[in-house]
Specification:
The strands form two sheets. Strands 10, 11, 12, 13, 14, 15, 16, 17, 18 and 19 form a ten-stranded mixed sheet that branches. By secondary structure, the protein is of the alpha/beta class. Helix 2 packs parallel to helix 4.
Length: 242
């Protein structure tokens, strides 16, 4: 593990698993290459913006997409649960793409979601796409969750908000390098708050240079850019607009 200091204040380290360990205030968290956030001391796994059944929602409007997004998303989540054995799984809002999405789940996907609540606590944080939470699936439905000095909510509050962990904005970064540039989903943090990438297969991403991110960070943020097997820490100056 190699500790690195960026701009005299960011402290982060690479993990053998490919994750990136950062501090949010006094709390250590791991940004994983899957797009999940891991709080090791709490044994809590957090994922945002699964947008389950987005493919079927588009199909109903005549835009045909391969109907496997829910299965692929839940299989990736199941792999994280298998590896980490969390005591708590937090779904950080917009777990479903729309209010009718739960009814469009097939039996296998219902079983996968039900299994998440087996032998652990499952928490559904409500989002703007799923304001009422699930109807028949197990777990606790909350508007936000406060634990370990952090507050977990779906949509980031405007202005500076220390200790907040949110989703909603689907952050992505275009990274400039000598051989060109590459665009990837990413975590984004200033060491005080963090916004998680969308975990859903069809969720997409919004550049962290977009005006939607303006004013959310007290200083130029750090991007935790997702790769195939690791998360790379990228400074603000290397992030190009779309």
């Amino acid at each position: 593990m190699n500790d690195v200091t960026l701009a005299g204040s960011y402290i982060f380290s690479a993990r053998a698993c490919g994750g990136l360990h950062v501090r949010l205030g006094e709390v250590g968290v791991v940004m994983r290459a899957s797009g999940a956030l891991w709080l090791e001391t709490e044994r809590m796994l957090v994922v945002a913006d699964l947008h389950l059944e987005k493919g079927s929602a588009y199909a109903a409007r005549g835009q045909m997409l391969p109907p496997y997004d829910t299965r692929e998303t839940l299989e990736r989540l199941a792999r994280e649960v298998e590896v980490l054995a969390p005591a708590t799984v937090v779904l950080l809002g917009d777990t479903f793409h729309d209010r009718r999405a739960e009814g469009r789940l097939d039996g296998g996907d219902v079983a996968r979601l039900t299994g998440l609540a087996s032998r652990r606590r499952l928490i559904w944080v409500t989002g703007n796409h799923d304001e009422d939470g699930p109807v028949s699936l197990p777990g606790d439905v909350v508007d936000e969750l406060a634990t370990s000095g952090l507050v977990f909510r779906h949509e980031p509050r405007a202005g500076f908000c220390a200790g907040e962990v949110a989703g909603h904005l689907h952050p992505a970064a275009r990274v400039v390098a000598a051989r060109g540039s590459v665009r990837r989903r990413c975590f984004v943090t200033d060491g005080s708050r963090a916004i998680l990438p969308a975990f859903g297969a069809y969720a997409g991403g919004l550049s962290i240079r977009d005006i939607a991110f303006a004013g959310l960070f007290a200083r130029p943020p750090l991007a935790g850019v997702l790769g195939a097997s690791r998360v790379r820490a990228v400074g603000w100056r290397r992030i190009a607009p779309d």
